[in-house]
Amino acid sequence: MKTTVALAALSALAQEDRLAAFRLLVEHAPDGLPAGTIAQRLGVPPPTLSFHLKELCHAGLILAHPQGRFIWYRAELEAMNCLVRYLTENCCGTSGVCDPVCAPAGKQAGTAARSLSTPGATRDAPSPGCLPATVPVAIHRRSRS
Protein backbone atom coordinates (compact mmCIF):
# COMPACT_ATOMS: atom_id res chain seq x y z
CA MET A 1 0.00 0.00 0.00
CA LYS A 2 1.30 3.42 -0.87
CA THR A 3 1.69 5.97 1.90
CA THR A 4 -0.68 8.36 0.11
CA VAL A 5 -3.41 5.70 0.02
CA ALA A 6 -2.93 4.96 3.73
CA LEU A 7 -3.16 8.68 4.48
CA ALA A 8 -6.39 8.97 2.50
CA ALA A 9 -7.92 6.05 4.41
CA LEU A 10 -6.78 7.33 7.80
CA SER A 11 -8.01 10.81 6.96
CA ALA A 12 -11.42 9.44 5.99
CA LEU A 13 -11.66 7.55 9.27
CA ALA A 14 -10.58 10.56 11.35
CA GLN A 15 -14.13 11.83 11.78
CA GLU A 16 -16.62 10.46 14.30
CA ASP A 17 -19.59 9.83 11.98
CA ARG A 18 -17.43 8.31 9.23
CA LEU A 19 -15.68 6.02 11.69
CA ALA A 20 -19.05 4.95 13.13
CA ALA A 21 -20.44 4.30 9.63
CA PHE A 22 -17.39 2.27 8.65
CA ARG A 23 -17.52 0.21 11.82
CA LEU A 24 -21.25 -0.42 11.30
CA LEU A 25 -20.58 -1.60 7.75
CA VAL A 26 -17.77 -3.89 8.93
CA GLU A 27 -20.25 -5.35 11.41
CA HIS A 28 -22.65 -6.06 8.55
CA ALA A 29 -20.07 -7.40 6.09
CA PRO A 30 -20.17 -8.74 3.50
CA ASP A 31 -23.74 -7.68 2.64
CA GLY A 32 -23.67 -4.11 3.89
CA LEU A 33 -26.61 -1.84 4.55
CA PRO A 34 -28.75 0.67 2.64
CA ALA A 35 -27.94 4.33 3.25
CA GLY A 36 -31.26 4.97 5.02
CA THR A 37 -30.62 2.23 7.55
CA ILE A 38 -27.13 3.57 8.24
CA ALA A 39 -28.53 7.08 8.78
CA GLN A 40 -31.23 5.77 11.12
CA ARG A 41 -28.89 3.60 13.19
CA LEU A 42 -26.31 6.36 13.58
CA GLY A 43 -28.80 9.18 14.03
CA VAL A 44 -27.13 11.19 11.26
CA PRO A 45 -29.22 13.30 8.82
CA PRO A 46 -29.26 11.67 5.34
CA PRO A 47 -27.53 14.59 3.53
CA THR A 48 -24.72 14.60 6.11
CA LEU A 49 -24.39 10.83 5.91
CA SER A 50 -24.26 11.01 2.12
CA PHE A 51 -21.26 13.34 2.35
CA HIS A 52 -19.50 11.03 4.82
CA LEU A 53 -20.19 7.89 2.77
CA LYS A 54 -18.80 9.64 -0.31
CA GLU A 55 -15.57 10.37 1.58
CA LEU A 56 -15.27 6.72 2.64
CA CYS A 57 -15.88 5.62 -0.98
CA HIS A 58 -13.21 8.01 -2.29
CA ALA A 59 -10.77 6.56 0.24
CA GLY A 60 -11.53 3.05 -1.03
CA LEU A 61 -12.86 1.86 2.33
CA ILE A 62 -16.44 1.18 1.22
CA LEU A 63 -18.28 0.43 -2.01
CA ALA A 64 -21.71 1.66 -3.08
CA HIS A 65 -24.01 -0.41 -5.23
CA PRO A 66 -27.56 0.49 -6.29
CA GLN A 67 -30.25 -2.07 -5.61
CA GLY A 68 -33.60 -0.95 -6.89
CA ARG A 69 -34.42 2.46 -5.41
CA PHE A 70 -31.79 2.17 -2.69
CA ILE A 71 -28.03 2.51 -2.55
CA TRP A 72 -26.36 -0.17 -0.48
CA TYR A 73 -22.93 0.33 1.03
CA ARG A 74 -20.51 -2.37 2.09
CA ALA A 75 -17.11 -2.30 3.73
CA GLU A 76 -14.10 -3.13 1.60
CA LEU A 77 -12.58 -5.62 4.03
CA GLU A 78 -9.46 -6.15 1.92
CA ALA A 79 -8.75 -2.40 2.01
CA MET A 80 -9.21 -2.44 5.79
CA ASN A 81 -6.87 -5.41 6.15
CA CYS A 82 -4.28 -3.78 3.88
CA LEU A 83 -4.37 -0.65 6.05
CA VAL A 84 -3.83 -2.69 9.21
CA ARG A 85 -0.96 -4.58 7.52
CA TYR A 86 0.56 -1.28 6.40
CA LEU A 87 0.39 0.12 9.92
CA THR A 88 2.00 -2.94 11.47
CA GLU A 89 4.44 -4.10 8.80
CA ASN A 90 7.44 -2.47 10.49
CA CYS A 91 6.54 -3.16 14.10
CA CYS A 92 9.58 -4.00 16.20
CA GLY A 93 11.64 -3.46 13.04
CA THR A 94 14.79 -2.36 14.81
CA SER A 95 14.75 -4.95 17.59
CA GLY A 96 15.15 -8.06 15.44
CA VAL A 97 12.49 -9.90 17.46
CA CYS A 98 8.86 -8.93 17.32
CA ASP A 99 6.87 -8.88 20.53
CA PRO A 100 3.99 -11.39 20.13
CA VAL A 101 1.52 -8.65 21.05
CA CYS A 102 2.80 -6.50 18.18
CA ALA A 103 3.41 -9.17 15.52
CA PRO A 104 1.02 -8.77 12.57
CA ALA A 105 -1.04 -11.83 11.70
CA GLY A 106 0.93 -14.26 9.57
CA LYS A 107 4.31 -12.74 10.51
CA GLN A 108 6.83 -14.70 12.49
CA ALA A 109 9.00 -13.10 15.13
CA GLY A 110 12.00 -11.39 13.63
CA THR A 111 10.65 -11.06 10.09
CA ALA A 112 9.96 -7.34 10.49
CA ALA A 113 13.66 -6.60 10.88
CA ARG A 114 14.58 -8.81 7.94
CA SER A 115 12.03 -7.12 5.66
CA LEU A 116 13.64 -3.73 6.32
CA SER A 117 16.99 -4.96 5.10
CA THR A 118 15.64 -6.47 1.88
CA PRO A 119 17.36 -4.81 -1.11
CA GLY A 120 14.98 -2.53 -2.98
CA ALA A 121 12.35 -2.62 -0.23
CA THR A 122 10.55 0.68 0.26
CA ARG A 123 7.79 1.95 2.48
CA ASP A 124 5.52 2.29 -0.55
CA ALA A 125 5.99 -1.32 -1.69
CA PRO A 126 2.69 -3.17 -1.78
CA SER A 127 2.10 -5.55 1.08
CA PRO A 128 1.60 -9.19 0.12
CA GLY A 129 -2.05 -9.82 -0.70
CA CYS A 130 -2.94 -6.14 -1.04
CA LEU A 131 -4.41 -4.79 -4.19
CA PRO A 132 -2.37 -2.15 -6.02
CA ALA A 133 -3.15 1.38 -4.91
CA THR A 134 -5.71 2.87 -7.26
CA VAL A 135 -7.39 5.29 -4.89
CA PRO A 136 -6.80 8.90 -5.88
CA VAL A 137 -5.91 11.22 -3.06
CA ALA A 138 -7.77 14.48 -3.27
CA ILE A 139 -7.07 17.50 -1.17
CA HIS A 140 -10.27 19.34 -0.45
CA ARG A 141 -9.99 23.04 0.22
CA ARG A 142 -12.85 25.30 1.00
CA SER A 143 -13.08 28.27 -1.28
CA ARG A 144 -13.08 31.64 0.38
CA SER A 145 -15.79 33.94 -0.85
**Low-confidence runs:** 107-129, 131-145
Cα end-to-end separation: 37 Å
Distinct helical segment count: 6
Q: Could you name the CATH topology of the largest domain?
A: Arc Repressor Mutant, subunit A
Assign an overall shape.
elongated
Percent range of helical residues: 40-55%
User: How many strands appear in the DSSP assignment?
Assistant: 3
Rounded mean pLDDT score: 78
Give the strand order, joined by hyphens, for the main sheet. Answer: 1-3-2
Radius of gyration, taken over Cα atoms and rounded to an integer in Å: 18 Å
CATH architecture of the largest domain: Orthogonal Bundle
User: What percentage of amino acids are in beta strands?
Assistant: 5-15%
Largest sheet: 3 strands, antiparallel
CATH class of the largest domain: Mainly Alpha
Task: Give the helices and strands as they follow along the chain.
Answer: HHEHHEEHH
CATH superfamily of the largest domain: Winged helix-like DNA-binding domain superfamily/Winged helix DNA-binding domain
How many distinct folded domains?
2
Summarize the structure in words.
With 145 residues, the chain is mainly alpha-helical. The chain has two domains: 3-77, Arc Repressor Mutant, subunit A (Orthogonal Bundle), CATH 1.10.10.10; 90-124, no CATH class. Helices cover 43% and strands 10% of the residues. It is built from six helices and three strands, in the order ααβααββαα. Strands 1-3-2 form a three-stranded antiparallel β-sheet. Strand 2 (62-67) and strand 3 (70-75) form a beta hairpin. Helix 1 (3-13) packs antiparallel against helix 4. It is elongated. Residues 107-129 and 131-145 have low confidence and may be disordered.
